[in-house]
Specification:
Length: 369
């Protein structure tokens, strides 16, 4: 379901452009369409007024919360069931943020991600993306939306850009508070600069070594990390929003001194922030997070080289914080047989000085999904 379908439905029910705006604004703000006090529905054409309860029901049916798990950090993970029974996750973040999904499943297949293990099921329509915001706003204030949930936004670009445009206009969210997250895709860098609403950009880097990055993100577009940073830098300078680089910290894989040197080489002098996110352990995957002290050392090292960096935890670690875990758990509970394990080889680091645990990692296999 796309926003264009909703607009067509409203027009077919007698809505003029001004009514359409009022109704879409109300929906994205989680206000009742069918005669709430704050909606001037009395001025609507009779035909539209009569249709509002049915339209309201159709919008509600786009997504329903099937499970809600509150975290100790103020986050809350919502399992959202779509009209066809598929499920996605949306996460209410502390400080008025929301993380939304853009696809059911994901084709990129990052080896540390529960969402990627089963591949792509289907795209989310732009209306289903906005519906997650409406559901969240029915629970609390939302002033920031990050497109970092299930799915790769670049693989569903038209729907994601439509949703961003609505949220950045009628949805009342500041453009810099809309964060488009991607593993990197040339189409993003071609289209985002010309979008009506230009969001901030988050790039999933995870390694500065092309071979390791390819292993971690097996079906991401083949772009050298150095080129990815250059493309991101151009966008950051054009929009005035720094690029937020995402780096899932995996012990023995991408937490070595060689990677730190690579980050300094790529990001020094760039309009960028590096976010280190220690990996959330999942029973069925054999990755682990480095110790807190190592993660702090890495952050400090970048600061010493003039690179803004932060050590972040995934919101709601106590509630299956990794992307797709809540949905995966629900699906697993319905499966007669668990998925088969697959072996993932970790390539040798470019500079094997022994300190970055590369020697241990080289040639070792990890049991992924
Ligand atoms: S981390 Fe993101 S891009 Fe990678 S498989 Fe998971 S959902 Fe897809």
């Amino acid at each position: 379901m796309r926003l264009t379908h909703i607009r067509q439905r409203l027009r077919a029910s007698g809505a003029k452009a001004c009514h359409e705006e009022i109704l879409l604004r109300a929906w994205s703000a989680a206000l009742a369409l069918g005669g709430g006090k704050r909606l001037p529905g009395h001025s609507f054409p009779l035909q539209l007024r009569a249709a509002l309860p049915a339209i309201d029901a159709e919008l509600q049916a786009l997504g329903r919360v099937r499970a809600e798990h509150a975290g100790e950090d103020g986050s809350a993970r919502l399992l959202v069931e779509l009209a066809d029974g598929q499920t996605v996750e949306a996460v209410l973040l502390p400080r008025d943020g929301l993380c939304v999904s853009t696809q059911v499943g994901c084709a990129v297949g990052c080896v540390f991600c529960m969402t990627g293990r089963d591949g792509l099921k289907r795209q989310l329509g732009s209306a289903e993306i906005v519906a997650q915001v409406a559901l969240a706003r029915s629970r609390r204030v939302v002033r920031k939306v990050v497109f970092m949930g299930m799915g790769e936004p670049a693989h569903n670009l038209d729907n994601v850009l439509e949703a961003i445009e609505l949220l950045g206009t009628l949805g009342g969210i500041a453009h810099k508070n809309l964060v488009f997250s991607t593993v990197g895709d040339r189409r993003v860098f071609e289209q985002l600069p010309h979008a009506a609403v230009r969001p901030a950009l988050a790039l999933s880097l995870h390694s500065t070594r092309p071979a390791v990055r390819e292993m971690l993100l097996p079906r991401a577009p083949s772009i050298d990390p150095a080129e990815l940073v250059e493309l991101g830098e151009r966008y950051a300078r054009a929009t005035g929003y720094p690029v937020q680089y995402q780096w899932t910290l995996l012990a023995g894989v991408n937490d070595g001194d060689d990677e730190l040197d690579g980050i300094v080489r790529l990001l020094a002098g760039k309009y960028a922030i590096m976010n280190f996110i220690p990996y959330n352990a999942v029973d069925s995957l054999a990755f682990s997070r480095p110790g807190r002290e190592r993660a702090m050392t890495m952050t400090r090292h970048l600061h010493q080289h003039g690179i803004l960096s932060a050590l972040r935890d995934s919101a709601g670690q106590d509630i299956d914080g990794a992307c797709g875990q809540l949905r995966a758990r629900r699906i697993d509970s319905m499966r007669p047989v668990r998925f088969a394990a697959r072996a993932v080889a970790i390539p040798e680091p470019a500079t094997a000085d022994g300190k970055c645990q590369g020697g241990q990692a080289a040639g070792r296999t990890r049991q992924g999904s």
